[in-house]
Amino acid sequence: MIHQLREIQTNRLILKPLDREVDLFSYAQIMSEDEVGRWLPKGRGYTLDETISFMTYMEGHWIKHAYGIWGVYSKESQTLLGHCGLNFIEDLQKVEVLYAYGQNGRGKGYATEAGAQVLNTAFEQLHLQEVIALAKPENNRSRRVIEKLGLLYQQDIQMWNMDLVYYSLDKNQRNKAK
Q1: Model pLDDT, residue 43
Q2: Domains in the chain, ordered, with CATH?
């Protein structure tokens, strides 16, 4: 099944695992943006070493779970825009949909477009029963995307030394909404 999930596409986007040799510097540039990092646990843009460490984590996640976080590329320009995918959170024993986009990928509907395809993959190919999403309460843009994707607010939680809002969507809710 992992081979089927290596690349997925939408009308405007290609989602595929990041290739460290090809994508490192473009991805590091995206992750170094403070506007990206402020919404992540570090609260600021990532250094090159932190980006390498995160890419290593993503590679290991793919091996361990046979799904993970994809790089999101423009079909038109082949440019890396950010990431979107599925991440198993050990502390919660839940799978989250997550995303982050650089300056060139924000405000164009890419997060919603990629997120919807990732949720389709989660429920239809991986047969997950539930997917969650987490965001900082003040991250209104991310919360709008999460809500457009159909996830429902559940509660406020604290994780990774951050206050977060917790959303979820189970397969039955999603099927009823279709």
Answers
A1: 83
A2: 2-129 (3.40.630.30)
